[in-house]
Amino acid sequence: MIKTDALIIGAGPTGLFTAHQLKLIGLDCEVVDNLDRIGGQCIELYPDKPIYDIPAVPECTGEELTNNLINQLKPFDIKFHLGERVDEVKKDNDNWIVKTNNGKSFSTPNVIIAGGVGSFEPRKFSPKECEKFENKSLFYSVQDKKVFEGKTVSIFGGGDSALDWAVELSKISKVNLIHRRDEFRGAQATLNKVKELNSTGKINLLTKCQLVCVNGSSKIESIDIKNDDGETKNLKTDYVLGFFGLIMQLGPIANWGLNIDKKTIAVDTEKFETNQKGIYAVGDICTYPGKLRLILSGFHEGALAARACFKLARPNEKYRFEFTTTSSNLLKRLGKKE
Amino acid sequence: MPKITYITHDKQSHTVEIQNGLTVMEGAIQNDIPGIDADCGGGMACATCHVYVKEDWFNKLPKKEDGEEDMLDMAFEPKTNSRLSCQLIVSDELDGLVVDIPSKQT
């Protein structure tokens, strides 16, 4: 059991700056995120897209913003638990016991949900029967490519993951690459490679086609795909891979007894506390009258939630507001003063 | 104000008046029309405001901008008449538009 003053769920910009604020006022914190890297939506959805409405930053990409926030955390020692999803939050006297899907548990008086619009999960195929083959002969990510050796693999998607794996697996497997249209959004260089491999017969490229159904009993034997003209084709295949990007799911947060409306959590605007004492929600996931889904709003919400955490984490101390320009306490924490 | 009709997957038809300048996605959210999630809030970053546009309307709409087709790759059961409703800005020209909402968004 890890003890901490505050646990932050979500390592997007709001979660990162909230961590900064907690450490600055002298509290410990740990951060959990379902993704295997820091940055949240900024990194997953728009790493290369410029953002123009961060105060005092005229223009930066999602990736640059994330890197700057990480740099801002450098003075502090913050433990990140990446690739882990918080599944359970339970009350234990004055603390919350928080458990992740990897079996880690935390005891903390403060839980700050900075979860964006939930956790990212792979987008899945629509035919129902796909579910029963999932993680057996149908996958949304590749853990160990050796299982595909000498087999036929049908890859769906038009982005970098689909193209990269088509090229990679064509070295050891028979590959069908299937996409719903002629254009691909993956890198041009990889696409050229795919086309070259298609002309030499190493990759069987099928565009303007989509999956209709998956056939087989215990494992996949073949798939049916349909083209834009409505013609159906049966393809023998041992494995199916789907790369349709990520989708945000509220996930287990829905079960924590919070006031949730349209995938957002109601909070007050003083502490950004939910209906549960010691659980806060900040950033895109919270709602209150006048809420704006802007990164800058998340920063403000995190700063206030951090102050509210102080009261529960240090019940016998008084929080004193200080400026980083003048406070020797803060400057010490920032490593600017002995 | 232009009238937009949303047909949900269970064939319920909802016709609402939407102010010019709002998007077809915002019109659905403001009028509590089920089946449009719009997780990213209109940033063309999630494909959860996906709709099918009736054929006769599809060709009258402003063409897709870069990125919309890429996002549609990730939508649930995209078809040739798929659009992201956050990219359809309501104007007098769109008065009478009918869109079908897919059975789900994810």
Describe the protein in words.
The complex is a heterodimer of chains A (338) and B (106). Chain A is an alpha/beta fold and 338 residues long. Chain A has two domains: 2-121 and 247-333, FAD/NAD(P)-binding domain (3-Layer(bba) Sandwich), CATH 3.50.50.60; 124-244, FAD/NAD(P)-binding domain, CATH 3.50.50. Helix content of chain A is 23%, strand content 29%. Chain A has eight helices and 24 strands. In chain A, the strands form seven sheets. Chain A has a five-stranded parallel sheet with strand order 6-3-2-10-23, covered by helices on one side. A five-stranded parallel sheet of chain A has the order 12-19-13-14-15. In chain A, strands 1-9-8-7 form a four-stranded mixed sheet, with no helix packed on it. In chain A, a hairpin with a 4-residue loop joins β8 and β9. In chain A, α1 (13-24) runs parallel beside α3 (62-72), α1 (13-24) packs parallel to α7 and α5 (160-169) runs parallel beside α6 (188-199). Chain A starts with a strand and ends in a 5-residue tail after the last helix. The mean pLDDT of chain A is 94. Chain B has 106 residues and is α+β, with helices and mostly antiparallel strands. Chain B has one domain (3-100): Ubiquitin-like (UB roll) (Roll), CATH 3.10.20.30. Chain B has helices at residues 24-30, 55-58, 68-72, and strands spanning 3-7, 13-17, 50-53, 82-84, 98-100. Chain B has a five-stranded mixed sheet with strand order 2-1-5-3-4. In chain B, a hairpin with a 5-residue loop joins β1 (3-7) and β2 (13-17). Chain B starts with a strand and ends in a 6-residue tail after the last strand. The interface between A and B is medium-sized, with 24 and 18 residues.
